[in-house]
Design goal:
Helix content: 25-40%
Structural class: alpha/beta
Shape: globular
Oligomer: single chain
Strand content: 15-25%
Distance between the termini: 76 Å
Number of strands: 22
Number of helices: 15
Strand order of the largest sheet: 15-16-17-14-13-19-20
């Protein structure tokens, strides 16, 4: 049985606890490996290694740091298929999506390597004579990364690459469900020549490892992607320690379909956004807000297409919908379906745990559509994180925007319309961090900021240049070469 170990100060090692838990294939229920379960002591060793390594890493010129990231990018590219196979085996998403996720990590590695020559500051005219003023970015120190199981390498790349190119060291806790691809990613960093101590992998539970990271005085910031409940707890505890946090949490994303929309195109976007990754994306489409004039036609088209979605093991190239991550998720999704029925929504299709040959051993839930949903229903407000869609009828663009914005989350939204004026109204008024026009709610590209408003996060962004703001501090520098005391705001007036 393969054993997944920690990686601390350049060495692969077991936790001092001696405990391991199984890593399960969500499509088959089979055991893929065992992963070590760490303690506070393991976290402390990782932090000590990171702090020591960061002392010299921050002095390495950023373009030189970037050379290692380029090597990481090429190794990711070379091993794309292997990584995708591992990812699909332990997470469950279909293999095409697994390849797409690894490609996202490749793209991010090349992009952030490029930022090694673009860690720009500013030069600013001083208000005084013979004085020079500028601002520069400096690393924060040690970044604690806590990543989820649904995008186990993509999100890890969003966080670790900008942290490292900025001159920080990293302590990383991956999700317990997906440690195999995490270990493969760290091996690539190791092979690329990243000096020891700069990336430290500590496997274990959130209650043990995650809490120890949040509380550790040697970790300067926490970057977390996961549930709102956990994110809020992290923010409260880290905030009391004056520790920076970057939080990317839930979504209740909607596609709005207006009466002038291309319905066939909208159906494609809804199917992909709602049932890709079995709805287990923070950007998944969980609401369809449709103009009453085309609700019936859109619904008919959706029902006709949903039967074409083959369900099964994601390693099968013909499968379009894979399993959800575990039995707990399966039960949570089914409980929400019951809630929807109790609330008076009409179940059109799905609503059941999938059974049958090759499905019984895995965690499969049928793609599910509710109609006659009102915005105040729980299934229209709360994140289900599964293949469940609620259809909500509206009479106008203004009402659609109001419904879209009525939830506590603000990650992603989309609108299908042929009217450019309506599109620009939506771009302005949809209260989400990401807006799509004539495309679904998923498909973010790595060179733009990723994150949301309201309950989705705390104002920071993953991805794009904006990610550098998470992992750097601004330092203002003044050089006075006048040879005399000059008092700003006094001697210049």
């Amino acid at each position: 049985m393969q054993k997944i170990l920690n990686y601390i100060n350049g060495e692969w090692c077991e936790s001092a606890s001696g405990k391991f838990v199984p890593v399960l294939n969500p499509a088959t229920g089979g055991v893929l490996a065992e992963v070590t379960q760490s303690t506070k002591e393991d976290v402390d060793r990782a932090v000590q290694a990171a702090r020591e390594a960061q002392k010299s890493w921050r002095l390495v010129p950023a373009p030189e740091r970037a050379e290692i990231l380029y090597k990481v990018a090429y190794l990711l590219k070379e091993r794309k298929e292997q990584l995708a196979q591992v990812l699909t085996s332990e997470m469950g998403k279909v293999i095409a999506e697994g390849r797409g996720e690894v490609q996202e990590a490749i793209d991010m590695a090349f992009y952030m390597a490029g930022e090694g020559r673009r860690l720009f500051g500013d030069t600013i005219p001083s208000e005084l004579r013979n004085k020079f003023a500028m601002s520069v970015r400096v690393p924060i120190g040690v970044a604690g990364l806590i990543t989820p199981w649904n995008f186990p390498i993509a999100i890890a790349s969003w966080k670790s690459l900008p942290a490292l190119v900025s001159g920080n060291a990293v302590v990383w806790k991956p999700a317990t469900e997906t440690p195999m691809v995490a270990a493969e990613f760290v091996k690539i960093y190791e092979e690329a020549g990243l000096p020891k101590g700069l990336i430290n992998l500590v496997n274990g539970s959130g209650s043990e490892v995650g809490n120890a990271m949040v509380d550790h005085p040697g970790i300067d910031l926490i970057s977390f992607t996961g549930s709102n409940e956990v994110g809020a707890a992290i923010n409260g505890r880290a905030g009391a320690l004056l520790k920076r946090t970057s939080l990317e949490m839930g979504g209740k994303n909607a596609i709005t379909v207006l009466e002038d929309a291309d319905l066939d195109l909208a159906v494609e976007g809804i199917l992909w956004g709602a049932f890709g990754t079995s709805g287990q994306r923070c950007t998944a489409t969980s609401r369809v807000i449709v103009h009453e004039d085309v609700k019936e036609a859109l619904t008919e088209k959706l029902l006709a297409r949903i039967g074409e979605l083959k369900m099964g093991n994601g390693l099968d190239e013909s499968v379009k919908v894979g399993p959800v991550i575990n039995r707990s998720a399966l039960e949570r999704i089914h409980e929400y379906v019951k809630i929807g029925q109790e609330e008076g929504a009409t179940l059109l299709t799905g609503g059941q745990i999938a059974t049958g040959k090759s499905l019984d051993e895995g965690n499969f839930y049928l793609p599910t559509i509710f109609t006659d949903v009102t915005p105040d229903m729980r299934i229209a407000k709360e994140e289900i994180f599964g293949p469940v869609v609620s259809i909500i009828s509206v009479r106008s663009l203004e009402e659609a925007i109001e419904v879209n914005n009525s939830v506590e989350f603000g990650l992603s939204s989309a609108i299908y319309t042929a009217n450019v004026n309506r599109a620009f109204h939506a771009m302005r008024d949809l209260d989400t961090g990401i807006v799509y026009i004539n495309a679904g709610t998923t498909g973010a590209e790595i060179h733009l900021p990723f994150g949301g408003t309201k309950g989705t996060g705390n104002g920071h962004r993953d991805s794009g240049v904006a990610a550098l703001d998470v992992y750097t501090e601004w330092k203002s520098v003044y050089v006075d070469y006048s040879g005399k005391l000059q008092r700003a705001q006094i001697d210049n007036y």
